[in-house]
Q: What sequence folds into this?
């Protein structure tokens, strides 16, 4: 009797960040840490926000350095 792979559900793994059981995500190289796709997306959004706050100005200096020069 033949079985289709589509009928076999993927196993769930607990996400190291949100602690929820998920089927989609990534393991680290050692294979002992799993982070789900939802937490990966949250991390990418956080980094994008952080980068926009700490953006490099036209003169090659950070916005904090430019602000210090403008308002000593």
A:
């Amino acid at each position: 009797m033949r079985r289709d792979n589509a009928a076999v559900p993927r196993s769930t793994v607990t996400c190291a960040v949100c602690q929820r059981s998920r089927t989609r995500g990534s393991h680290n190289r050692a294979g002992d840490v799993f982070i789900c796709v939802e937490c990966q997306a949250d991390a990418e959004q956080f980094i994008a926000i952080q980068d926009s706050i700490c953006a490099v100005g036209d003169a090659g200096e950070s916005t904090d350095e430019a602000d210090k020069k403008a308002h000593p």
User: Anything to note?
Assistant: The longest strand covers residues 25-27. Residues 10-59 form one domain. DSSP finds two helices and four strands in the chain. Strands lie at 13-14, 21-22, 25-27, 34-36.
